Amino acid sequence: MKKRILILGAGFGGLELSTMLSEALGNDIEVTLIDKSDSFYFGFSKLDVMFGRTTSDAVLLPYKKFLKPGVRFLQETVSSIDAAARRVTTNRGIHEADFLVVALGADYDFAATPGMADATEFYTLAGATRLGEMLKTFTRGRVLIAVGGAPFKCPPAPSEAALMMHDYLTTRGIRSACEITLILPLETPVPPSPETSRALLAAFAERNITFVADRELKSVDTQRRVATIDDGREFSYDLFLGVPAIRAPKMLEGSGMTENGYVPVKPRTLETRFPDVYAIGDCAKQGTPKAGVFAEGAARAVATALIARLRNQQVPVTHKGTGSCYIEFGAGRIGRVDVDFFSNPDGPTGTYYEPSVALRADKEHFGSSRRARWFGL
Questions:
Q1: Is 9 in contact with 105 (CB distance < 8 Å)?
Q2: CA distance 251 to 90
Q3: CA angle 290, 292, 297 (to 5 degrees)
Q4: Rounded to whole angstroms, how far apart are CA atoms 156 and 312?
Q5: pLDDT given at position 244
Q6: What's the pLDDT at 38?
Q7: Shortest CA distance to 295 belongs to which of 50, 117, 43, 46?
Q8: How far apart are CA 302 and CA 102, in angstroms?
Q9: pLDDT at position 322, please?
Q10: What is the DSSP string of 300-339?
Q11: Along the chain (377 residues), what's the average pLDDT of each consecutive run of 10 residues?
């Protein structure tokens, strides 16, 4: 009888896990991949949409193109999980599995920051599209980029937004009529890599971008156009780019899988406290940032372990806690930081690669290779 593997969530983690299992075992297993959406998009594409480089329709990759031997995709919404029984209830029925992998990501918690639900944000595709339309008629004033709390998705993205905003306003000839302020709940833009942080701080200074470190957005008053941070200071704005707080899906909490908002796992193996149940990506406390590349790395580790188990081989421990982040510095140049969260007992380390036009090709390959691998596009 074929082993049944149920994967909840078709982001970076779910897609890579399904692909690796299919490549290794094909039709010898039954993999069911469930996601509430009908399409996938890369997180970095939201910045391109906001600044008019592409459209929201162009960045969507439909799951109907995800065709792998031994894998079926179901567009369903998970309503509850019985982790002990490896039984999942959705809006369409009940699914049972021999192995369960939870890769549901993190939800935006707009209610955590008063006023955020009514404010503009660029972390959803709809929000980035809305801001893109607003930017077309924006001609002068104060641009404020602020984060609702840590952890947050894709830590370099707010810094990228500030630098790309400078370029956008400069190209339109209105930069001198505008101010740009970035508020982060981090002491430096990229804490694991002091060198990357120094480069970003220098870029901010060179472009006259105000950086407010180690401060969290506490509320937004969209009527007064004022944002308040955790030390009581108020920042007036004419254009607000919010980054919502996040949390694991509430359904996971209701299913008894979370502690302090996220699913605890053994960082090296991604195992939960429930037998044959794993959790990866943004919904899990896996010891890495909330970014797709780290969910993908965790997926590879779980896939390697499951393949070994299904072949009755020794199970290797391969989750390295490493990943690369590409950072838009503006003027067509992209930097990169390779981060390692597990090797150094003193804490995470990062290797910085200076911004260049050549690294843009690397970033484009990052997207195109996964588009081809997962969707055949």
A1: yes
A2: 11
A3: 100
A4: 41
A5: 97
A6: 98
A7: 43
A8: 11
A9: 97
A10: HHHHHHHHHHHTT-PPP-----EEEEEEEEETTEEEEEEE
A11: 96 98 98 98 97 96 98 98 98 98 97 97 98 98 96 96 98 98 97 96 98 98 98 98 96 94 96 98 96 97 98 94 96 95 94 96 96 96
DSSP letters along 201-270, please? Answer: HHHHHHTTEEEE-S--EEEEETTTTEEEETTS-EEE-SEEEEE--EE--HHHHHTT--BTTBEE--TTT-
Tokens standing for residue 71: 């894998």
Does the fold of domain 109-246 match that of domain 3-50+60-106+248-310?
Answer: yes
How far is CA 155 from each of CA 77, 183, 191, 235, 346, rounded to the nearest angstrom? Answer: 28, 12, 10, 22, 21
pTM of the model: 0.96
Q: How far apart are CA 188 and CA 198, in angstroms?
A: 8
Cβ neighbours around 94 below 10 Å, total:
10
Cβ–Cβ < 8 Å for 212, 185: no
Calpha distance 367→145 (Å, rounded): 26
pLDDT recorded at residue 305: 98
Q: Which of helix, strand or coil describes residue 116?
A: helix
CA distance 339 to 357: 21
- Taking the C-alpha atoms of residue 258 and residue 60, their distance in angstroms, rounded to an integer, is 31
**What is the percent of the chain where pLDDT is above 90?**
98
Does domain 109-246 fall under CATH 3.50.50.60? My reply is: yes
Q: Which CATH code, of 3.40.190.10, 2.60.40.10, 3.40.50.720, 3.50.50.60, is assigned to 3-50+60-106+248-310?
A: 3.50.50.60
**pLDDT in the model for residue 210:** 98
CA distance 267 to 281: 11
The domain ranges of the chain are 3-50+60-106+248-310, 109-246
Match 């609702």 to its residue by tokens: 148
